[in-house]
Every structure is written in structure tokens, then in C-alpha cells.
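#structure-requests
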Amino acid sequence: MVSRGDFFLKQYLPGKPTKWWIKAWGVADSVNGYFLKCNIYKGEKEIRQQDLLLGEQVVLQLTENFWGKWHHICFDNFFTSTNLMKMLLKKETCSCGTTRTNRKNWSIEFRKPTVLKLKRGEFRKMQHEDVMAVVWQDKCVVLHSTNSDPRTDGSVTRKTGKENTEIEFACPPAIIRYTKNMGGLDVSDQKCECYGVGLSSKKMVEIYITVCHKCVSCELFHLI
């Protein structure tokens, strides 16, 4: 959320076109973008659990109401870790996410995917206990998963060449599921753009109005 106010929740994000934001973590339905839960990041004032990475703590806090139902949760590489996958699986929740190759407990063989010299459509899979690690060569995707059978393979269609000829490539089911289901928050943001807030404020109330607007807009979108 873009912020112009002067208060401790503001975060400086140099990679964004607008540098000052209020950072919020959220979870949304992957099909319709329905906004389910949101937490505001408090920066240095965030209450941290010392035995968890920030990304692990965020995912556990946002998903605790959905444990025990074998839901499938997708997240990006900021949150993904082997430890998080195992904790969610103990809570009867499957998960899948792209990962960073320097993360703890990531396979040594997969630390440098380019060394594998995979051709387009080729992949490698490894499994430790119930967590599977996948490297797939399309744009060099690396991923952790507990929601797919490592013994099965799928396929995807890609366009190639000047004539955009469609060619079928082999692809691990974990990546197919991730591609299909990742992006619930993007869908939620797109739907929220249909409704403007109509209020510019530099005060603390700006935060609450923006968050409430996001939730109410998603609700209205599904009622219309």
C-alpha cells in the first residue's frame, strides 16, 4: 500500500516505483481472488519468534485458521523453506513454492542449477522425507513442494521460434500446480482497482481505510 504519511509503519522499498509503502502480508483464494486475511508488517516493532524466519512466521500466522483441512497453499521464494514445508505438513496442510537456492537444507546438488546443463523441458527431482525439490529448465525454475507425487510427470505447451510454433514439454506436476494456483493476491488487487477509495489522507486512518477497502471491494465484486 502506497503511503505518504509520517509514521513507523512506513517501509522504504528501493525496487518499487513509489519508494515508501506500508507493507502488508495477505492470503487470498487462488480461484476468485477472495481476500481471506491480512497482517500489517510493523518493521522493527514486529514481534518475532526467534526460532522462525520472518517468512515462515508470516505464513504460519496467516494460514493457522485453515490447518487440518488439507488445503494447498502456494507462496513465493521469500517465504519458502524446508522447515516451513514440514511444519505445514504436520498441520495437515500441503504447500508449494519457488525457493532460493541458498536456503538452509536445500539440496547441495541443486545449489547451482546452471551446472546441471538442462535443456528446455528437462528437470531433476529429489526428495527428502515428504519434501520434494525440483529444478525445471524453462526459465530455470527451482521449487519446493509437498503437494505432488514425485513419481508422476506432466506436460505444458510453449510457443517457440519466429512462427510461434506450439511444442509440448515435459513438466513436473508441482510446477503445473504452482503456476495454476499462484496469484490469488494479484487477482484480488485487480478486482480492487475497480473501486476507488476517493480519500487522500496522511494520517493513520489511511491504513485502516485501505485495508478495509481491499476486503470490502473483494466482497462487493462477488456480490455484483
